[in-house]
Amino acid sequence: MTTTFETQRAALADVVAIPVTPFAEDGTVDPGTYRALLRRLLDGGITTLTPNGNTGEFYALTPEERRLVTELTVDEAGGRSVILVGVGHDVPTAVASARHARDLGAQMVMVHQPVHPYVSQSGWVDYHRAIAEAVPELGVVPYIRNAQLTGARLAELADACPNVIGVKYAVPDATRFAAFARDAGLERFVWVAGLAEPYAPSYFSAGATGFTSGLVNVAPSVSLNMIEALRSGDYPTAMKVWEQIRRFEELRAANGSANNVTVVKEALASLGLCRREVRPPSRPLPESERAEVAAIAAGWSI
C-alpha cells in the first residue's frame, strides 16, 4: 500500500513551531523547562513541533543532547502534535537521527541545509536521497537555503523518494521562491515559508501554505492570528500582525541573524519562562538591549 502522508502534509500547512532548547544554570539541557515550554505551545494551539531546529540551537547541541530533545518532545507531545525532527550533519549521523526519530514515533524529519563548503546540485540530491531512502515511512522535508539550487533538482529527488513531501524554503527572495516552487511542482509539495512570519505574507501569495516560527515560543496566539488571516486571504489583517511583530523580527535578523535565537530566549527570560543563556557562536543580549525585547514581549497578548 502506498503511503499518502496526508496527516504529515496537513501538519506542514500550519504554524511549524521551532522550540528553543533551554539550558540549566550548569549549561546542560534543562528537561523540565523544555517540557514546560512545549506544554505552553501545545496548550496555545500549536500542533506541529520541530525539535532540533535552528531556533533550538541544533548545531550547538551534542548528538546525545539532540537525541534527548527528540525524546522529550515526542513524550511530552503525547500525540497532541505532529513531530518534525531536525536532522543533519554527515549522512550516517543524519540517517541515525532519522531512524531514532522514527523509532520514537515521530512522523517526519526536516533535513538541515548541508553546511559543507562544497555542495554540488547533484550531490545535494544524493545527500537527501540517502536520508529519505533510509526512512521511507517518514515524511521528509528538505530545508533549502541555497539560492543556486533549482526546482528541477527537487523534482528529481522526489521522483526517487516519494516520501519527500514538503519543503522549508528559506531563501530570502519571494520571486525566486515562486519560480522554484513552480519548477519543482507547486501542487506536488507542501511549501513552508522557512523565514517565519516576516516572509509569510509574500510567500503565501506565491504558494506557501505554512510557515516556520521561533516567535511562537513567546506568543503562540500572534503566530496563529497570522496564519488564520493568510488562510482566509485576508492580507490586510496578516499585515497588521506583521507590523506587530516587525521590530522583534528586525532585532532577530540584525547583523546576519546574529541574535536570532538570543532575542527569543531573552523574551522568554523576561516572562520568567526560561534562562536567557545561549551557546556559542550565539551570545546573550547585552543589558542595554534587553529592555526593548522585554517591552515587546509584555505588549503582546499572550
Automatic annotation (TrEMBL):
CDD domains: DHDPS-like. SMART domains: DHDPS. Keywords: Lyase. It comes from the Bacteria. The keyword Lyase applies. The active site is at Y143 (proton donor/acceptor), K168 (schiff-base intermediate with substrate). GO terms for molecular function: 4-hydroxy-tetrahydrodipicolinate synthase activity. Gene3D superfamilies: Aldolase class I. The keyword RNA-binding does not apply. Transmembrane segments: none annotated. Pyruvate binds at T55. Pfam families: DHDPS. Belongs to the DapA family. This is Dihydrodipicolinate synthase family protein. It comes from Streptomyces calvus.
